[in-house]
């Protein structure tokens, strides 16, 4: 989840990018401004993010329909607080309120940017860069981030690719909400290593995600989480619950908090603090 598609800063920013952004697009990837030029890629991307087997992908399916269908389900998950977005938002906002900025922020797997827009005030932000694999989510994000003005850059890019090309010592905050658990273990290590490289002194990685309980294997996690979806997510229709459960089985590869601390530690992010925990949903910050 999401299934559609990824203490410190009192110094002035070293770089403020207004008219451009120092990332170049990778071959085969697209900026949001060019997103509608590659309909085939969009169709595949949207179906993968909703958990559809790639062997069953039909190029005749309308990508806008797919986005609206899956995004509407996820909005119900948020509005009914089924994944504790309110608690996570409150915890992260409290952390960020103690650091007025101006901040350079990298948001990986930003979706429609609803929550980051509530965590930060426009006056806190010198530069915001968000990336997501769904160009349609980014269309919504652009509207949600209008109060931030020209300081916003949105990329229709893979989050690991964006991190690898991010400038060193540039960001005060690297944030990711409910996206990291979709990556492989190797990619998660890359996430922390590259985040450490791109952070300024005293910068932080802020992670909101699902995490397995300590010593809980993935099959047990899948059974437990899908059991909770079946029993407690009455706000969704049967079809929507089935959709969510299929996505979880196919796309969720969460680590334990200890595993994530080890990955962060290998990257030099040795100060780890839990901000919030609600069942398998947790918020953490990591710093050097």
TrEMBL record:
PANTHER family, A to Z: TRANS-ACONITATE 2-METHYLTRANSFERASE-RELATED
Alphabetic keyword roster: Methyltransferase, Transferase
GO molecular function: methyltransferase activity
Protein name: Generic methyltransferase
Transferase as UniProt keyword: yes
KW Translocase (keyword) present: no
Top-rank taxon, per record: Bacteria
GO biological process: methylation
SUPFAM superfamilies attached to this UniProt entry: S-adenosyl-L-methionine-dependent methyltransferases (SSF53335)
Methyltransferase domain: residues covered: 105-203
InterPro entries per the UniProt record, alphabetical: Methyltransf_25, SAM-dependent_MTases_sf
Pfam families reported for this sequence: Methyltransf_25 (PF13649)
């Amino acid at each position: 989840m999401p299934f559609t598609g990824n203490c410190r800063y009192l110094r002035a920013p070293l770089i403020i990018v207004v008219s451009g952004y120092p990332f170049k697009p990778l071959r085969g990837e697209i900026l949001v401004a060019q997103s509608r030029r590659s309909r085939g890629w969009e169709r595949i991307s949207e179906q993968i993010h909703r958990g559809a087997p790639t062997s069953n992908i039909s190029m005749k399916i309308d990508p806008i329909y797919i986005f609206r269908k899956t995004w509407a389900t996820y909005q119900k998950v948020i509005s009914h607080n089924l994944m504790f977005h309110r608690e996570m938002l409150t915890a992260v906002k409290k952390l960020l309120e103690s650091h007025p900025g101006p901040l350079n922020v990298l948001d990986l797997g930003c979706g429609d940017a609803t929550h980051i827009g509530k965590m930060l005030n426009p006056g806190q932000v010198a530069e915001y860069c968000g990336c997501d694999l769904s160009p349609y989510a980014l269309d919504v994000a652009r509207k949600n981030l209008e109060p931030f003005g020209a300081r916003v850059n949105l990329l229709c890019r893979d989050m690991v690719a964006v991190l690898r090309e991010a400038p060193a010592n540039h960001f005060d905050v690297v944030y990711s909400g409910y996206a990291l658990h979709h990556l492989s273990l190797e990619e998660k290590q890359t996430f922390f290593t590259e985040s450490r490289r791109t952070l300024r002194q005293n910068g932080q990685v802020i992670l909101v995600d699902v995490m397995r309980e300590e010593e809980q294997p993935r099959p047990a996690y899948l059974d437990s989480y899908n059991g909770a979806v079946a029993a407690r997510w009455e706000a969704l229709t049967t079809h929507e619950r089935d959709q969510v459960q299929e996505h979880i089985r196919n796309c969720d590869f969460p680590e334990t908090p200890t595993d994530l601390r080890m990955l962060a530690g290998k990257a030099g992010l040795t100060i780890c603090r839990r901000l919030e925990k609600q069942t398998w949903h947790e918020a953490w910050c990591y710093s050097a």
